[in-house]
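Q: I'm writing up a methods section and want to include an example of the input and output format. Could you take the sequence below and give the corresponding predicted structure tokens, formatted cleanly so I can copy it straight into the document?
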Amino acid sequence: MKILKLQNCFKSGLAKFYTRLLRGEAGKIGLGSLVYFPFHSTDISGLEIGKNSVIFSYGWILTVSEGWGVKYSPKVEIGDNVYIGFRCHIIACNHIKIGNRTVLADNVYITDNFHGFEDIAKGVMEQPLRVPGPVIIEDEVWIGERVCIMPNVTIGRHSVIGANSVVTKNIPPYSVAVGSPAVVMKQYNHESGQWESCRTK
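A: Here is the clean output for your methods example:
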């Protein structure tokens, strides 16, 4: 137990030091927020983190300002008291917003863009990024492990996205969605005070 406590103290201390260094690169990192080492990015100038949020080790957040001869205006907004698990990957050319008290489990992928593929004379990596629209994740959302959230999607407040789901369309507030593509299975009924199934028998 003593070894584990020492290990945790060391990791926390390193995270505080590392977060101070990142403040010079990021647009904003609020008080009490921590980014755990190692963290991968080539550009976080468009990243804003609120207060008391945490990004665990092996995270990769990238704001793409320019590429393939195209200029972008990227922004990633992470609210207050947000938990982002290990090995999460967030990449923005336009706008990704993660609301307050939201939880991302490990290995979550969020993007507001994808590679073009239309020109068959070029490889996919040679073609400009396509940016269909922003990703908005509202407050108090739970994102399960290995979820992929694709461009031009809004996930409503206090919703739950089940593990391994792929979100390609908007999810209403107070919903439980699972699958690939993700489908709403339950919604909270404010009149009855119950979570009710959306599936038809």
